[in-house]
Amino acid sequence: MRILSIDPSVNSVGWATADITEDSAAFNWGVWQVSGLNFLMRCADVRDYILQEIGEFEELVVEWPMFYDSEKGHVAARQGHTINLAGIAMYICGYFQLPHQKMRLYTAPDWKGTVPKQVTARRFFKQFGVDPMKVDHNAVDACMMLLYHCQKEGLVG
Fold first, then answer.
1. Phi and psi at residue 30, in whole multiples of 5°?
2. Which of 56, 60, 70, 92 is 20 to 30 A from 146 in CA distance terms?
3. Could you tell me which residue, 52 or 82, shows the higher pLDDT?
4. Any idea where the domains of the chain sit in the sequence?
5. 145: number of Cβ within 10 Å
6. Burial of 144 from C-beta contacts in 10 A (0-12 / 13-18 / 19+)
């Protein structure tokens, strides 16, 4: 079974896959730079990357944005980033039309709590033995969210 995880963004989309067999799990990750001239073109860029580079998958995990009541959160909301992230997430969910039981939306606090990015990066290194400084932080987040999902569902130890 292949599971795809997406950390949506309007510029750099983090992705990760887990290929799960009865006795192993292989994780891969990366980042896609989207460059469409408008929001719909950027959504289509993400879709095309998935179709061309990932292929088929049986489950989809997507980070769902949430509003943070802080200066940074208010700026993001005013600039449309929060709603755009939700739009990208729903575009992907709608395009691939998996049954709702095969899609998971996790907010950042759902899958990592309130820890800073540095803690998530250390956990990534501990789990995968890869220097997180050599991996885009969006890919780290997509991978660690996917690991959280797989552990929560009992697919990996």
1. 180, -170
2. 70
3. 52
4. 2-152
5. 26
6. buried
Which H or E element spans position 146?
helix 137-152
Joined together, the tokens standing for residue 40 give 């719909």
- What confidence score (pLDDT) does residue 72 get? 73
Judge whether residue 100 has pLDDT over 80.
yes
104 and 60 in contact (C-beta within 8 Å)? yes
DSSP assignments along 6-74, one per residue:
EE--SSEEEEEEEEE-SS-EEEEEEEEE---SSHHHHHHHHHHHIIIII---SEEEEEPP---SSHHHH
CATH topology assigned to domain 2-152: Nucleotidyltransferase; domain 5 (3.30.420)
Token pair of 137 as six digits: 């932080």
Q: Residue 78 — φ and ψ, nearest 5°?
A: -60, -35
Q: Which amino acid makes up residue 17?
A: T
Scan for tokens 């909301």, then name that residue: 77
Tokens 């891969």 -> residue: 28
